[in-house]
Design brief:
The chain has about 300 residues and is of the alpha+beta class. It has seven helices and 17 strands. The strands form five sheets. The protein has an eight-stranded antiparallel sheet with strand order 1-2-6-7-10-15-16-17, covered by helices on one side. Strands 3-5-4 form a three-stranded antiparallel sheet. The chain has a two-stranded antiparallel sheet with strand order 8-9. A hairpin with a 4-residue loop joins strand 4 and strand 5. The radius of gyration is 19 Å and the shape is globular.
């Protein structure tokens, strides 16, 4: 059994694959096609490229309905459904808040309350008006901005997995920046792919090892981007309903059959907490919570 590893940068993330197969040519062709797909998605979902379909929505949807490809329309529809199911904790219109808190392209800073209030006026998934017949997106007001940060990586990983399956690859590990992962099959001689969940207080340590087979793991942690002000830590995981970073959690890892689901549900679980998650957990999923307590209790929610 041969092994191939490869990676590429797109949409502000590093996408990597590990493949096993008996045919080197098949693996190399599959790897090439996988990264072609990632680059294609970058042209659709990037909020850094002004010509992408996602950016076109942000530029013009406050003025008029913007027609979008079926793929993007379906993704935005899924985002609205995640928002409804998470009581608004998942919200792709959180962009203005990420900017005012300095998390958009930096490590963050403490804004004035007036700035937060102004940004909040443009936040809320109900500001997305989707017309299924015309395949258009419109914003209900000016200032609304959609951010692919909570969904794009998961969707891209699932598309990469589809491409690999089309090329008859059966064993692979697909990762987006190490935070959204899908495990296909199992490496030779193993029950599945071993993946470690890092200690949210110490990047040199792990708190849990999991074995994945034909399932996904995504993690959201307060250690990814944060800053300290007046003796308090503010992390980049924003509660779109309050306008302030969520507190009380250090990290949440969730395992689901699809990566889009594991990534989308990570932040609502982080924001709403373990008690809420126990009542709203998607079927077929399990989650690992590291709460911000003195004893740093980490527990499974099966």
């Amino acid at each position: 059994m041969l092994r191939l590893e490869s990676s590429a940068d797109a949409m502000g993330s590093t996408y990597s694959i590990v493949l096993y197969d008996d045919d080197r040519d098949r693996m190399e062709t599959a790897a090439e096609m996988v990264f072609d797909e990632v680059r294609r998605l970058d042209g659709v979902l990037s909020n850094y490229k002004p010509e992408s379909a996602w950016s076109q929505v942000n530029q013009f949807a406050a003025e008029r309905p913007v027609e979008v490809p079926q793929e993007l329309f379906d993704l935005l529809t899924a985002c609205v459904n995640y928002s409804r199911k998470s009581d608004g904790a998942f919200d792709i219109t959180v962009g203005p808040l990420m900017k005012v808190w300095g998390f958009y392209k930096g490590s963050g800073h403490l804004p004035a309350r007036g700035e937060v209030k102004k940004a909040m006026a443009s936040v809320g998934y109900r500001n997305l008006i989707l017309d299924a017949k015309a395949h258009t997106v419109r914003f209900a007001r000016k200032g609304v901005e959609i951010d692919p940060g909570g969904i794009g990586k998961g969707y891209a990983v699932d598309r990469m997995v589809e491409v690999l399956r089309e090329r008859k690859i059966k064993i692979a590990l697909v990762s987006a920046s190490g935070s959204s992962i899908y495990a296909m099959g199992a490496p030779p001689g193993e029950p599945g792919w071993k993946v470690s969940i890092r200690d949210p207080r110490d990047e040199e340590k792990t708190v849990q090892d999991v074995v994945l087979k034909d399932e996904s793991l995504s993690t959201s942690g307060s250690y990814e981007k944060f800053f300290e002000a007046d003796g308090k830590i503010y992390a980049h995981i924003m509660d779109p309903r309050t306008g302030f970073p969520a507190s009380g959690m250090l990290s949440v890892s969730i395992i689901t059959p699809r990566t889009i689901d594991s990534e989308a549900w990570c932040k609502p679980f982080f924001i709403n907490g373990r008690v809420w998650a126990s009542k709203h957990k998607p079927e077929g999923s399990r989650a690992y919570f590291c709460e911000d307590k003195a004893d740093q209790s980490c527990v499974w929610l099966q």
